Description:
The chain is α/β, with parallel strands linked by helices. It has helices at residues 51-63, 81-94, 122-136, 155-167, 181-193, 216-223, 261-265, 268-280, 285-293, 309-316, 326-336, and strands at residues 24-26, 33-35, 37-40, 68-70, 102-107, 141-146, 171-177, 198-204, 226-230, 299-304. An eight-stranded parallel barrel has the order 3-4-5-6-7-8-9-10, surrounded by five helices. A two-stranded antiparallel ribbon has the order 1-2. Strand 8, helix 6 (216-223) and strand 9 (226-230) form a beta-alpha-beta unit. Helix 8 (268-280) packs antiparallel against helix 11 (326-336). The radius of gyration is 20 Å and the shape is globular. It starts with 23 loop residues before the first strand and ends with a helix.
Amino acid sequence: MQINDKSQTTAYTPSSERYNTMTYKRSGKSGVLLPAISLGLWHNFGFVDNIQNGREILRTAFDLGITHFDLANNYGPPYGSAEENFGTIFKKDFKSYRDELFIATKAGYDMWAGPYGNLGSRKYLMASIDQSLKRMGLDYVDVFYHHRPDPDTPLEETMGALADIVRQGKALYVAISNYQPKETQQAAEILKRLNVPFILHQARYSMFDRWVEDGLLDTLEKNGVGCITFSPLAQGMLTDKYLKGIPKDSRAAKNLTYLNEETVNSNIEKIQKLNAIAESRDQKLSQMAIAWNLRHQQVASVLVGASSSNQLKENVKALDYLSFTNEELQLIDGIVR
Length: 337
């Protein structure tokens, strides 16, 4: 009897060329090399999304030498579903390549009801790592983040929980995200006393959002910690999508939380000028924006999301031209500052 399967999904064999073209950068003073571009699963991997499309994006990423996949407990929607879908795909395609992958997850935002499902208590973090590992079908993650500062929980408690997660073998390294320079320095000092490998700080960074330049990058350099940046395309503004206005089907047209029409309209002239610089470099604006992030020695990797394999391939082309002239950097500063 013939099987009428039109999915055309075949068993996955990674490209034998996957490590030949990717650029890898050291994370601070650790032993970890990260791909210059990493894949974030914040969007496009939840239960509301097409899991087959997500599977193709992950396969494409690994074929391109992207070894770092970045998740969090609340990625979806709904919460937890990105980890669960990743776990399903991992079991089918990547389990035998586990030692070639660097997998991250996080906890810090609201995840479940009640007083123990949010922020930075030991109770929350210990429960969260166990839940995440179960959803993904993993014995451990390579790095576990505290996703945001908790103003009411002592930092010693939060960092102590991260340290114990490493000692229990549930994570190899620890990291933080969205911490200001002063908090980052304090966290680094606590983790050093606890003799726990603190290797990454994840921070939002783009030409339109340069807060990390006001002390954070220097703090990370001082403590031998790498930076991995997210939202390098400023939620899509630093692409060719908005060069001629706001398309009806765009994120800005939907006035979502992170991007709206007013924000785009106030930046269109800047976007057009930046695009002209990118064209002079024979790059797309999105590719130049990623390369601009990577100009810093402290930036070990740039996280990108992708709604398709082709989009991911286009973003990786940023690595074809990473250098900037002083004139180009001055022009960019003159536009965005």
